[in-house]
Amino acid sequence: MVRTPSCDKNGVKKGTWTPEEDKKLVDYITRYGHWNWRLLPKFAGLARCGKSCRLRWLNYLRPNLKRGNYTKEEEETIIKLHRHMGNRWSAIAAQMPGRTDNEIKNHWHTNLKKRSQQESLSNTPKDQVPIEPTSITPSQSFNTTQDSPSSQSSSNITLCKTFTNSQSLALEDEFAFLDADTDLVCGNFWFEPYMLDISYFPPSEPEYFSPFFDAQLWSYDN
DNA sequence: AATAGGGGCAACCGCCCAACA
DNA sequence: GTGTTGGGCGGTTGCCCCTAT
């Protein structure tokens, strides 16, 4: 797929990444780490916004990513996790090493959504109204915008109540641990979707920090 | 052989939150 | 307490490919 390259009014390039851009980004992060996404493209010699660099790195360039077809097991896992979590793709991705939230989200919308709906319909008795898999999600237990899932302090309690009291939720399979271990649910599992990525943090050698100090000078100059 | 339409997926957009000054 | 900034996330868009007609 080749998306037509374009630039916005600030000269920031948009569209498909070229192999040259990928190489620049990989080379830079491998050497210096992603110490600041906003400034990184300037130092890496890329005419991209920081968000674009971050997305490209996280979804396609970072190591240990699985590419290609999903296994049957992976698809089953996605369906089950989605049944419990709803559209919390980052949390789902955190349970699937090597897969990214964007990739899982795409795969869901293109393949698994229909399948999941068909399965739920086929499993529904005739006199029962089918329930859309995403109709009950953890996020919907929050009352206001400040109670979004990532608003940890107040919403953890609500979320925990939702799950510890939700005996009606089907937790019959290997995901029963979600219900059994409330510390897990209230702690790292739900609200720390990504493990801390320190694999590309710059080593504590002075030379590797030079971009950081350069960045400070740069920001003072601008 | 031509082409219309849907599928697949990379990338962007906009919002939210936490950290910090 | 308030404003700013960077990072993270889910939703959506847009373009190419494939297939049916």
Automatic annotation (TrEMBL):
One of its GO terms (cellular component) is nucleus. Residues 134-147 have a biased composition (Polar residues). Its main location: nucleus. Pfam families: Myb_DNA-binding (PF00249). The keyword Repeat applies. It comes from the Eukaryota. Residues 9-61, 62-116 form the HTH myb-type domain. SMART domains: SANT. GO terms for molecular function: DNA binding. It is found in: Nucleus. The keyword Transmembrane does not apply. PROSITE patterns: HTH_MYB, MYB_LIKE. Residues 9-61, 62-112 form the Myb-like domain. Keywords: DNA-binding, Nucleus, Repeat, Transcription, Transcription regulation. SUPFAM superfamilies: Homeodomain-like. Residues 112-155 are annotated as: Disordered. This is Uncharacterized protein.
